Amino acid sequence: MNGSCETLKDIIENLNKADLDPQTEVVVAPPTLYIVSVRDHIKSGGKPNLAVAAQNAYSVASGAFTGEISAQQLSDCEVPWVIIGHSERRTLFGDTDELIAKKVEACLSYKLKVIFCVGETLEQREAGQTLAVVEKQLAAVGDKVKDWSDIVVAYEPVWAIGTGKVATAEQAQEVHKGIREWLAKNLSSQTAEATRIIYGGSVTGKNSKELSKKPDVDGFLVGGASLKPEFVDIVNANRA
User: pTM of the entire structure?
Assistant: First the structure.
């Protein structure tokens, strides 16, 4: 819940002017109030690899759900992407695995592309439950959705979000590899190979290069650093 009309305009103008790696897809997710404005600023820049996303959507198309927005409404406003299952939605607002799966299913039905978030708390990691927790979260969506061609999986260890702590490149790779193996076992080898798995958790311009070198880290879900000029460095992490 960051940004204002002026600051978000500045951020998008900076991205429009920046020399971004054309091979990297960049999606920005402003607060709901600013989505259409940000969408229009992005369009004015003409970068084909830059798009806008919503931070959340509800599982029902319309009705008496005050304060929510639906996948149908996002589609109507030409918002192509949506984040579903972010850890803050899970921990602060009580989104369950079941509700998140319904949200993913609803968004896909309206042809939105979904950034589907999974991850464990510090307590769960210290108990050795990381992969079990992540696989349970994946399975909830896997039970409802068999075509994952419009899903990007974002692994965000809750203990590393906004804390300054970051999973080591090896820790991130271990979980990303486990996610890819789950996809291969429970969906198909083709799905496992094609699905992008991105890392989120105190990503910075400094640590993004090391993380990006890992074979199963396909990109990043960036929080605080997306509001800073170093976001361009993260976008360009794969450039030689």
Answer: 0.96
